[in-house]
Amino acid sequence: QVQVLESGGGSVHAGGSLKLSCVVSGYKFDRWCMAWFRQSADNRRVGVSNFRSDGVTKYADSVKGRFTISQEGTKSTIYLQMNSLKPEDTAKYYCAVGVYYYTGCSFDTTLYSAWGQGTQVTVPS
Asked: 78 near 51, Cβ under 8 Å?
């Protein structure tokens, strides 16, 4: 069965940086989508960034220029480098795995079948 494990969260002051990791095991498909979502106090889970198996990436407007999603070294691991963090970035961050789409990966949560437990990112004012 597919397992997803996030790590790297913590508390940093505004302007600081964090790098999240997502390790996936048991996913047998050659082509896939992986994505980072976040859920804040309003309980809405929204897309942050996604990465398709061929390297195509997407970002939410709120994080463009500050966050970078990548696959480095081990191909089963996806990273989210977060720079210039803001208080509004405070949320629990989730990694998810889903089906590859030729039109591109999505921020629709229903299209992702395997989720991690989440890792908390806190940016005090």
From this structure: yes
- For residue 44, the surrounding DSSP H or E stretch is none
Closest CA to 48 of 91, 103, 102, 104: 91
The whole-angstrom separation of Cα 53 and Cα 50 is 10
Residue-wise pLDDT for 17-29, tens only, equals: 999 999 999 988 8
When mean pLDDT is compared across 50-54, 80-84, 98-102, 108-112, the lowest value belongs to: 98-102
Residues 124, 14 contacting (CB under 8 angstroms): yes
Percent helix, percent strand, percent coil in the chain, to nearest 5: 5, 50, 45
Residue type at 2 in one-letter notation? V
